[in-house]
Task: structure prediction
Amino acid sequence: DAGITQSPRYKITETGRQVTLMCHQTWSHSYMFWYRQDLGHGLRLIYYSAAADITDKGEVPDGYVVSRSKTENFPLTLESATRSQTSVYFCASSDRSGNTIYFGEGSWLTVV
Amino acid sequence: GDSVTQMEGPVTLSEEAFLTINCTYTATGYPSLFWYVQYPGEGLQLLLKATKADDKGSNKGFEATYRKETTSFHLEKGSVQVSDSAVYFCARSNFNKFYFGSGTKLNVKP
Result:
């Protein structure tokens, strides 16, 4: 039972570079989410998706792009990375009932 | 707007002490409520949940009761262990959107 896998787990990039964080889930869950975790802010929702080809903004979407061409994948792209995007990024998924959300192990991103 | 507020940490306790971490929420309708735990270097894991008023969620000695009248979902454990040291997040969901509190770090000393 692979669950949710994120890659890369750790990434250092330079300001202005494009970075893509990958997320893959094996449960065929309808809903997928991207959160960022920062000290003092807890978890903040960046984008979410209710199904393939359906995405919507969360609390902090600026500077990020998502796509969902297949149910199992939900990549997050930072088009031009900034230092303020240094964070831990968590991908998550839930089924249609919304009873529980399941998290990946996180991607640690440092922008220098 | 809808939100989740939990007590600030860190909370430092001795082993076998009683734990309470307060959580209150504001929401329209009748949300489901959750506690998640995050161990160092890991993602969040579901600890317990409650889906309607007066439900009690429980797991691994932790409990929380969905109190609609006080809009609260406080986490309790009668006797904490060093292995309970982690960050605890209260959360609520409405229509498949999940909102999290800022997290409370628990340190348990031997």
User: Anything to note?
Assistant: The radius of gyration of chain A is 13 Å. Chain A has a mean pLDDT of 93. DSSP finds no helices and eleven strands in chain A.
